[in-house]
């Protein structure tokens, strides 16, 4: 893979993380699959807003929709995305431990 392709892949990941709602979706899905209505409720956004963010995350290649009858279950496209999020969060906390002094590490930032 050429450097330009690396740049594009990381830019997509950065774009996904640049929005707090998308970040919360990814952090929630790293714990396991979820349904849109449940995700919207747990994150505290409308289903329309959640739908727009899920479309963005699908476009970035980070989540997939798995059809289940009339519903779709969302999950990370690859389990390594969850590991990358854990590693990135650990790095952020190592560099700036004051970033979220009262939050649990898994829900931080």
UniProtKB/TrEMBL annotation:
<dbReference type="Pfam" id="PF01022">
    <property type="entry name" value="HTH_5"/>
</dbReference>
<protein>
    <submittedName>
        <fullName>Putative ArsR-family regulator</fullName>
    </submittedName>
</protein>
<dbReference type="InterPro" id="IPR036390">
    <property type="entry name" value="WH_DNA-bd_sf"/>
</dbReference>
<dbReference type="GO" id="GO:0003700">
    <property type="term" value="F:DNA-binding transcription factor activity"/>
</dbReference>
<feature type="domain" description="HTH arsR-type">
    <location>
        <begin position="2"/>
        <end position="96"/>
    </location>
</feature>
<dbReference type="InterPro" id="IPR052543">
    <property type="entry name" value="HTH_Metal-responsive_Reg"/>
</dbReference>
<dbReference type="GO" id="GO:0003677">
    <property type="term" value="F:DNA binding"/>
</dbReference>
<dbReference type="InterPro" id="IPR011991">
    <property type="entry name" value="ArsR-like_HTH"/>
</dbReference>
<dbReference type="GO" id="GO:0046686">
    <property type="term" value="P:response to cadmium ion"/>
</dbReference>
<dbReference type="GO" id="GO:0032791">
    <property type="term" value="F:lead ion binding"/>
</dbReference>
<dbReference type="InterPro" id="IPR036388">
    <property type="entry name" value="WH-like_DNA-bd_sf"/>
</dbReference>
<dbReference type="GO" id="GO:0097063">
    <property type="term" value="F:cadmium ion sensor activity"/>
</dbReference>
<dbReference type="GO" id="GO:0010288">
    <property type="term" value="P:response to lead ion"/>
</dbReference>
<dbReference type="InterPro" id="IPR001845">
    <property type="entry name" value="HTH_ArsR_DNA-bd_dom"/>
</dbReference>
